[in-house]
Write a structure and sequence with these properties.
The protein is 5% helix and 38% strand. It is built from four helices and 31 strands. It has helices at residues 2-10, 143-148, 191-194, 454-458, and strands at residues 40-49, 59-64, 73-76, 81-87, 95-98, 122-127, 133-139, 153-158, 167-176, 203-206, 214-216, 221-228, 235-239, 245-249, 252-257, 264-266, 271-277, 285-290, 298-305, 336-344, 360-362, 379-381, 386-393, 399-403, 408-413, 416-417, 423-424, 426-429, 434-440, 445-451, 462-467. The termini are far apart. Bound molecules: CU-O-CU linkage (C2O) and copper (II) ion. CU-O-CU linkage is lined by residues 96, 98, 138, 140, 269, 402, 404, 448, 450, 452.
Length: 468
């Protein structure tokens, strides 16, 4: 019920991304270029993007490297990277490398881990990604507006040995609230929305453009990297006529498995890598549908088979298991155990009350904004200790909860053990869910734990965990 209410506000049924959009061939998800010294340079600046096709004006956006989404940052597992970010916006920014287990000083949280990058300033992020997989980058300053105006890009950390597939494909999905002139609607940080499902938009783009079809070839095996870069929209993708196999979640390989009910859930900030065998008929088209919200399903795109003859399966009998990343296994017997209670929101006894305090809280505390200096940690762990956290969602809303600096293993949901060796950095909690996660607190520093519905984060659903 709460769901319907939130939707009435925002979903005018994808007013622009409806049927009949021509496929606009354009350069999408270009790789980031390294300079002579090997540094990757990314400029953050206002720009324009053709989000909804040639029949509509271009949209004024904020962009990394001039494109929406930003250039794909391709790194190699275990090899040092230097990424120089230059801020040409009129406001401060930072970059958070979501899901990458990096040193605290490179985590991009304003005040807490670094000073913001001032207009005209630069900051050099240096880290060595320990894990191969699909990650992403986005601002952690004025996050609601900066992400909502287009600042997001994928990070692909390549395995040391190539994975046997025919094609590696990225779909970075973004959700926009556009006006009828295809401009980004004002009203970021609406208090009513913040206490409900957040700023859900009316146009979903795939690699920066509404998509009517994505070309595929019969017989090929594709590794499809799905990234939900939306502010608030939860997605659940179905591939008509196909049987995707999930091989990694939030960058971390899992036991290959077919999604429950054929539906791949993707909360904001979550990634899923699937192996997709293109077993359809040459010349045919198959819908890819997002049906997360009851009564509001829509077609994200179509898999469009070309007329070429079926590719001979070269790799079909290869195992789908990706090489595991070097994650420390938590010791459940000796782990310290803590509970974090998520509270507030509409129909959940708004924490600040209707009187105007922040609507959300974790363990009774509301940290608001994007991170700041001097935030007292809710919990402090000794470095190297195993930790079990029980997250209890005492609200009427969904929350994709993200922990910085660590990947965690999901132990159980509502008392039921979680299958498939699932590691994550963001876990989607349904209303009233209780989820247990475990990890080794091996990365020293102050780390954010927050909801990745940006309106929820900035309105109090955020806290800090310290690894001392
Ligand atoms: Cu992707 Cu603190 O977030
Ligand atoms: Cu939330």
């Amino acid at each position: 019920m709460s769901r319907e209410f939130s939707f009435a506000v925002s979903r005018r049924s994808l007013l622009l991304a409806g049927a009949g959009l021509a496929l606009t061939p354009q350069l999408r998800s270009r790789p980031a270029r390294a300079d002579a010294s090997g540094d990757i340079r990314i400029t953050v600046a206002p720009g324009r993007a053709g989000l909804v096709g040639p029949d509509h004006p271009q949209t004024e956006v904020w962009a990394y490297g001039g494109t929406v989404p930003g250039p794909v940052v391709r790194l190699r597992q275990g090899e040092p990277a230097r990424i120089v970010v230059e801020n040409r916006l009129d406001e401060d920014t930072t970059v958070h490398w979501h899901g990458i287990r990096l040193p605290n000083a490179m985590d991009g949280v304003p005040g807490l881990t670094q000073p913001t990058i001032k207009p005209g300033g630069t900051f050099t992020y240096e880290f060595t990604p320990p894990d191969a997989g699909t990650f992403w980058y986005h601002p952690h300053a004025d996050s609601l507006q900066q992400l909502g105006r287009g600042l997001a890009g994928a990070v692909i950390v390549e395995e040391r040995t190539p994975v046997p597939i025919d094609r590696d494909v990225l779909w970075l999905l973004s959700d926009w609230r556009l006006t009828s002139k295809a401009q980004i609607a004002a009203g970021f940080g609406n208090a009513m929305e913040a206490a409900m499902s957040g700023r859900i938009g009316n146009v979903v783009t795939l690699n920066g453009a509404a998509s009517s079809e994505e070309p595929v070839r019969a017989g090929e095996r594709v590794r499809l990297r799905l990234v939900n870069g939306a502010l608030a929209r939860i997605m659940a993708l179905r591939f008509e006529g196909h049987r995707p196999v999930i091989v990694a979640i939030d960058g971390q390989p899992c036991e290959p498995h077919e999604p429950e009910g054929g539906r791949i859930p993707l909360g904001p900030a979550m990634r899923v890598d699937v192996v997709l065998d293109m077993q359809g008929e040459p010349g045919r088209r198959y819908a890819v549908v997002d049906d997360f919200y009851d009564g509001h399903s829509y077609e994200l795109t179509k898999l469009a088979y070309g007329g070429e003859p079926r590719l001979q399966p070269r790799v079909l009998d290869a195992a789908l298991d990706l090489p595991r990343n070097p994650l420390p296994e938590p010791d459940l017997a000796s782990a310290e155990r803590h509970e974090l209670l998520l509270e507030g929101g509409m129909m959940g006894g708004m924490k600040g009350g209707m009187g105007g305090g922040p609507p959300w809280a974790i363990n009774g505390m509301s940290m608001t904004g994007d991170g700041q200096a001097g935030m007292a940690p809710a919990l402090t762990f000794q470095r190297g200790h195993s930790v079990v956290l029980r997250l209890r969602n005492d609200t009427a809303w969904w929350h994709p909860m993200h922990l910085h600096g660590h990947s965690f293993r999901v132990l159980s949901g509502n008392g039921v053990p979680a299958p498939h060796r699932r590691w994550r950095d963001t876990v989607l909690m349904a209303p009233k869910d209780t989820i247990e996660i475990a990890f080794v607190a091996d990365n020293p520093g102050d780390w954010m734990l927050h909801c990745h519905v940006m309106d929820h984060q900035v309105a109090g659903m955020m806290t800090v965990l310290r690894v001392a």
